[in-house]
Write a structure and sequence with these properties.
The protein is α/β, with parallel strands linked by helices. About 40% of the residues lie in helices and about 20% in strands. It contains 10 helices and 9 strands. Helix 7 links the parallel strand 2 and strand 3. The longest helix has 19 residues. The N and C termini lie far apart (about 45 Å).
């Protein structure tokens, strides 16, 4: 239970970036041999730069690729219960695609779909554009709007995006996603719900249980160190009158790697 207070101390005095750099180097050393073996065994697979992986998921090449494929299949299966995702011409957006951990697998799984992906990080987008085919990658700002027309997408998915946004951005982006999704279209998002409660300080837990959004900032918004924790009641309030909850899957409470909550939402027509 002491970790939230250590994290708060480092955040308050601007020491997190230095600690993160050290953690990155340790991770790089830890996975060096296994990553080299994976590249030798799979020379045809494009792997993003190490720091991209560390910033967005895990610095393990095999996990990056295989878990990304598993996640893409899981999302398609989940959304397929509510929408004919395999229908020719389905427009799908990966909002906050990062270095394409999940996105890269969509052309093979959704060959008839029109696939788009955006991220605010110019370096990620440049890498994706040069390495990943079959997807229209575009850079967006940390704040909306996007350049897409109204009611353009059938499906938008945002994996661990709201988890790095301010409260103001929660509302701004929810409104923007509502704008660009077609009536009856699907929004799939993940959030840091009750399975992450153990990471909070006593004061944060109290506020969380009162349905307050918890924000840990003091770093640039969108960065992996900028963290938001969303009580389910907050999300329900956020989407009110715009989306209805079709399916909610609470994250498992695994203290080593808690799962995020999964929300399948349908735009109210």
């Amino acid at each position: 239970m002491i970790k939230p207070y250590i994290s708060g101390f480092l955040r308050r005095f601007g020491l997190l970036a230095g600690v993160e750099k050290l953690r990155f180097l340790l991770n790089q050393a830890t996975f060096k041999n296994s990553n080299t073996k994976y590249l030798n065994k799979h020379p045809d697979i494009e792997i993003p730069p190490d720091f991209f992986l560390y910033e967005t998921y895990m610095l393990n090449y095999e996990v990056y690729y295989n878990d990304g494929l598993d996640t893409a299949r899981e999302i398609i299966s989940l959304l397929g219960k509510q929408y004919d995702i395999l229908h020719k011409g389905t427009r799908c957006l990966d909002w906050g695609c990062g270095p394409a951990r999940v996105t890269r697998h969509l052309p093979g799984l959704l060959p008839e779909a029109e696939l788009h992906a955006v991220d605010y990080n110019e370096q990620y987008i440049n890498w994706c554009k040069s390495k990943i085919k079959g997807i229209r990658f575009e850079q967006t700002n940390i704040s909306p709007p996007t350049l897409y027309p109204d009611a353009y997408f059938n499906i938008v998915m945002g994996l661990s995006v709201f988890t790095h946004l301010s409260e103001l951005s929660h509302y701004a982006w929810l409104n923007e996603l509502y704008r660009i999704i077609k009536p009856g279209g699907i929004l799939f998002i993940t959030t840091q719900g009750k399975s992450y409660e153990y990471k909070l300080s006593a004061d944060e837990r109290h506020k969380f249980n009162e349905a307050e959004l918890i924000i840990r900032d003091r770093v640039l918004e969108g960065n992996r160190l900028f963290s938001a924790f969303q009580p389910p009641h907050f999300i329900k309030s956020l989407i009110k009158n715009k989306f209805e909850v079709i399916e909610f899957i609470a994250g498992e409470k695994n203290h080593k790697s808690p799962e995020q909550d999964k929300w399948v939402l349908k735009k109210i027509e």
